[in-house]
## 1
Amino acid sequence: MKFSHYSLGLTVLAAAFTLSSCHEKHEHHTEEVAYQSATPLVTDTVLSEEYVCQIHASRHIELRALEKGYLQDILVDEGQQVSKGQKMFQIVPKVYEAELKRAEAEARLAEIEYENTKQLFEQNVVSSNQLAKALAIKERALAEVDLAKTRLGFTSIHAPFTGMMDHLLVREGSLLDEGEHLTTLSDNSKMWVYFNMPESEYLKYMRHSHSQESKIVRLRLANGEVFSEPGVVETIEGEFDHTTGNIEFRASFPNPNGLLRHGETGNILIDSPFPQAMLIPQKATFQILDRRYVFVIGANGELEQRKIEVAGELDHLFLISDGLHEDEHILIEGIRKVKNGETVHEKLTDMRALLPELDLYTE
């Protein structure tokens, strides 16, 4: 009986060990992790390169006094839109009016002298040289009249084109010197936007510059909004700046609502279309030194560390130019938990379904 009890005890222990082993195997099986994977997304897309820019009015000038004198009237105000030909400043004209009267009187006197000399010449009393001299004196007097009229006209300063005024730099009653700066005037109907491009990107741009679409650019304003009107690249400087390695571009933008002002800053956006581009999430990649890699999952679940070439960058996405095929499975998550050559279980997901989640992704 004792032997029977002993045998029964061994049987119970063996059964318990077997159940325990099965339970452990079952637990090990349930702990296996299926890593999320996907195939690259192939679709038409557009990459935007961004460049810091300066916004200038197409016409921006300094208005200056052309004659000396006291400033009698200021007929405009700061920030005002003025029309072409509108009177803006008036310098006291008394001195110039007097000069004009004197010049006109001398011109009349010279006219009389000429007519008298002409009559004497016709009577053979004076020579042709004397007649020519009288004519020259008359023409010089008329020129002095024109000069006096011009100088008198300079006392009234008019807008040379329709535009917007800046600060007033003088006040009524100021004694102005010739050439003194009064204000600035900007024609904001058309804006010139200047930006610099590195040599490598300039070469890439020039490869596609034969099409009109490649010359269309957009303008991102300081508040992050994109300006409603598209612009066109009009000119490229003739040489590179040897100190920076950049070359300057100028784009032109219409400004129908007057939102843009001279001196603003922003960013130029140049769009480059990529038909049938291959896109993968940035979070699916990792970097070793200056090279970027992904894990490609083979048919048997074995991981292959694959070097890729990135042609551009979108929000949370890389555009791949080399290293992947569109039907290959890449590891999306857990790249820090696995290693090259390891066998994993994958959970294949449609890449389009992953896109809304990328904004929420945090490393």
## 2
Amino acid sequence: DGEMHAAARQQSQLENELRVALDEGQLLFHYQPQLDISGRQVIGGEALVRWQHPERGMLAPGHFIGAAESSGLVVELGELALRCACRQVRDWIAQGLPPTRVAVNISPRQFRSSRLVESVAEALRESGIPPHLLELEITESMMLDEIESTKERLEGLHALGVDLTIDDFGTGYSCLAYLKHFPVQRLKIDKSFVDGVTEDADTAAIVEAVVRLGHSLRMRVLAEGIETGAQQARLQALGCDEVQGYYFGRPVSPETFAADLAARSELMAS
């Protein structure tokens, strides 16, 4: 019908515009700080894509990631994210800033790509940064698809020296039976658990269980989506290691992130 036809045309137009954006460099990356549980020291940043659309202005991922996934452009976008993140770490180090890891999200399509390990290796080689300063975030549900090939792919990434994080841990079918076999360094607690951690005893119990599980497997645990000091305090009491969220900082340009990193480094040194 007419409504479906209009929606299809709009989707097709968005995909075409996204192809142009990739070719013309309209996509850029902002970085949201990740801190130790005290909230004083920045230990990393998550790379989050933005689209500087020539007509619609700055667009958040929710406006175009769906189109990138359906068209397959998300693989090219993911490779761009890897290259940009690694170059950005290199540039910050060249500016005299402390080495800071950057986390990059890996989409399902990109994770299943035969080029994944090769593209990560190319980004590292091109930038020359130490591999441990690149962190790849992979959702729990992605790891449950074809366990053997997933394990092989993760081991290939681990061999490069990059850090691996299970994102949104606990929101899907938990892979507890396989977790010990995956070379993962970090678990990331989803915002849906953080939202209720100060008010709901059951939610707090789940968070505490995740923290204990992670620590028993020699992993660090990061909670995302912190919006209040009360949430930070509760997560600290439950043993969480690292935090991320609007309470500590929104995603910002590389220049703003670098300025904040420099200011915090001077404060820590004084």
## 3
Amino acid sequence: ADQLQQAREFMFAHPDNRAAATYVIPVVFHIIHDYGVENISDAQVLDQVAILNRDFAKLNADTAAIVSPFQTIAVATDIEFRLATLDPDGNCTNGIDRVASKRTYNADDGSKLNGWPRSMYLNVWVVNTIGASGVAGYAYYPSSVTGAGLAIDGIIILHDYIGSIGTGSPFRSRALTHEVGHWLDLAHTWGSTNDPGVYCGDDGIPDTPQTKGFTNCPSAAASQVCNAGVVENYQNYMDYSYCSVMFTYYQKVAMHAALTSNVSDRDNLWSTNNLVETGTYTTTPSTCVPVADFNGNRTMVCQGGTVTYTDYSWNGTPTARNWSFPGGTPS
């Protein structure tokens, strides 16, 4: 934690001292599912990655709505996310890993199955429900998952907060942007609690003013709660206002500090060697052999009854299928 704070303080003093023009981060989505709605499509995941890159590059059209005190400090972060095309063993992957498990329900850290090395990938686990009431997703600061915490490092999030299509929606599609902010050492704008609106707090970022935090979208005038005449940055991705559209300049600097620190291996993710090893050095997609997977609509049936099987093959596009059920009709 001290190392990370030192890195942040150095970067605040030397904000242009970047190690890379753009920090590319390899990502893997683990879909923890029970063959239900949480087993979201590849298209929904790809939509989420596009939204993530749009938000971090400040290419979202709704930046036009940023209120005047923050227009000049809303920035592109120079951080990019790419789905892995090589898994930890060097095998072809589309960056989407599907794991059938009942742990998709009431999920917690124990649901973070089949995690890939955090020094190589940002792990995102997608689940049906999360045990903690009212939680859409959560992530840990780098300083919270050093040592023994490496197995739970990453982001866990509900399936209907992924992307804007399928089970997702445009309204919820910025949740992962928020959680990646935490993963890169950003606090909520009011500080390190989950309780906005309780008190006026600070996040340690020089250009985000003291704020109480919001659970809805106020007007600029209504946001001046903590200090008279000071508009609070309720449009920040690290708020709960659901009208979030921006990161600030010094939030960008703080995330770069996290990425250049060795705390929880963030500094290896964007290295050239790691991008080559994860197949993310270029954006050329891979064509992988599908992983065969199917599920039946029932597991027990009386003689003469019927079972419907559905193809859930993943990691590529099947071009042919062959199956056999000896003694069945059809066999």
